Fold:
Amino acid sequence: MHEHVHHRHGSGHLRPLVWGLVITFAFALVEAVGGWLSGSLALMGDAGHMATDALALALGAVAALLAQKPADRELSFGWGRAEVLAAVVNALFMLLIIIAIGVAAIDRLRTPQPVQGGVVMVIAAIGLVVNLAVAWVLHRGEQTLNIRGALLHVMGDLLGSVAALAAGAIIYFTGWTPIDPILSLLICGLILVSSLRLLRDSIDVLMERVPRELSLPVVGKTLAAVEGVRSVHDLHIWRLDSSTISLSAHIVVDDLQAWPGVLDRLRQTLIQRFDIDHITLQPEPLQGRQVEIVDRISDR
Structure:
């Protein structure tokens, strides 16, 4: 005998990803041509970021579309983790980009090349506006791991545009070209931190780790303090996807007849205090637990 409460969130995450994809891909072409003509590594690196952003956004859009599919006999929890898998792929993809740009930047420091600062400034300024627009579109959506993965790419581009703009200005006014690869390395370091954090959070979901904002002992003690509850055991808390926290537990009660009222109090506590909305609770009579404990002691 058990009770199960589940409030499923909708996955209305597709539209911002599609809009971001269209805007990003269009400007990636513009920046690639501009970077090639001007000889700017920072600008070409930013164009590379935007091209991979377009791929990341496309991957995210497909994952968001899959996440909307209902549960079936094979996937009884639904397709929600498709978005988590997309976030993992995007984070790993971003790490590869960081390595590639880092290697290119070091090579450029060893063998400097001429850069047309004026062209870089103009295109980077336009790119900054475009990236701000895409980031705004994505930020307005629910912050799932999938959206965070796409937003990570866009923020990398936004920082890349700032770096390219700064590099273009310094080269235009001073002629000091090493600033171009130096700023590229700085941006790679900043993006690396966010990429590793996203990868960690995604792996947490796949490993069914207790959400970092929750404490298993605290949740257990809170449930045990609810009126009508004697103790709690076999408590598990994990994320099904970016937006759904699940909990299952065995609840020892004085009287099974009072279970409906106890269940309602437990459910309200979990939703209001911990925002846990996918709940499976198994009631157990206190008398049965006492007999079980005595039997175990006798066996020893």
